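Incident log, entry 3
Record: Stage 0 sporulation protein A homolog (524 residues)
Problem: checksum mismatch between cached and fresh output.
Input:
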Amino acid sequence: MKVVIIDDEPLISDKLKRIMETGLRGMHTVCAFTDAQTALDYIEQEKPGVILTDIRMPGITGIDLAKQINQMDYGAKIVFLTGYAEFEYARYGIEYKVFDYLLKPVDEQEAIKCLNRAISAFHAEQKHTEMYQIFQDYFVKNQELIRQQFVEKLFFQPVIFSEKQMELQKQKLRIAINGYRVVAVTYDRNRMPLEEESYYSYIIHEFFLKKFKEILALEHGGIFYMIWPTEEKTLWKFCSKLELIRRELAQLQPLDCMIAVSHYSENLSDIQQMKKEVLKCLEYGKDTGCTQLLSYQDLPMEYKENDFFDVTEAITELIRYLRSGNKKKIFEQMQKIINETEKETEKYFNNIMELIGANIFLFLSGIPLDKESKNKITESFEQQIHVQSERKTKADYMKYWLEYIADNIQSMHNNDQNQLIQQIYKYLNDNFSQPIGLTNVSEHVNRNPSYISRFIKQATGRKFSEILAELRLEKAKKLLRSSNLKITQIAEQVGYPNLQYFTRVFTGQMNMTPAEYRKITTYF
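Fresh output:
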């Protein structure tokens, strides 16, 4: 990275250049200028990350420089070099996002620390900007895919968006929906070859999406779900339109489609409830042989009151408990699935067990479980569950299989947590003297800061700030006991460049000042 020094006094600019060339961390190109205009031309062309400039110079002042550099808007960190008499004047640099100040005469170590902080801050912001740009590029190129993932999440995952977050998501994905209904379409697939079934599913998908570009659609489990934007709140008017569409589709293809309609809503967070409504409609159509358009509002009360068993939702819930390793919840959920399928045919029950297995294998492929464990899990399903013909035996083996998976996942989590906490403590021990925070630690272990904060609290029972402060104070106490360093030097070595703040923190923990602690410990 390029670092620029500007001071109209050649002796000062040359001295600062030598200091920075030998004292800064990392590889940097340091350039010194005595003429502000020449420096400005260089800055405009080369875009250095850190600029150390005197305030009072003939012609273009440091304030003028800061203003023009700020207008270039590439995130340069500006440090002002100023005398005591100019400090009030220097405060105006805040308007131009000045990073820090150095007072004359310059302390070499303080100057090096200041510019190292500026370099770290510049790198951090550049990294953030680059990551944001990567995300924006991906978002633009894959907007349709992201829209589809969003729709899938609305239908099949617990919705955790607040009203404000939901509106923001709609804006980002250009989803112009105010009022809507959920519409589901399916057809009789019995005895239909797989190729023919795939063909008709594709035809239905294309028919609706080409004819009604404003809808958001998702095909899952043989059902074509649609979020259908509409301002029409009157059910019969909306259904009349859908009935015409159903007849048009029937004329185009030899399919007797069943269409189900939910209630009207203006809140996308209602979608999972509305999905249940259309599934109840389809269940009613299947039980009664009714293939006409069905609305939830017109269903008999006994169908509305019955709690519809959504196998997809049940398996999703099972995997969520499996991820957390909660065996009690795993067994309860598995028993619920067994109970709900008790009256179904043997073939249906076996299909559900196979579906659970397939979803679990998909889940396992996305977690860092070792290959040997994954192979054993797969083999045990094939050898112990897949081959069982008796329903109760298969169900019992399924429970033991889930327990075995939960134990493997728990063991993996324990190993990961032990390694992670060791990484965190090693980083703190190696860097406690630097101006580090939770963000630095999170970047080092490649995790989200919010996650690391929760993880440290769960693993140690203490906050990150408490652990760092305790480590620094222990190092300070050791230096106070065993060295002749000045207290100012000790404070800097343990990560407190401000002596007053160090004294306040130390006194708050020890109920005595650093000087008092040193005096007392000399007797021991």
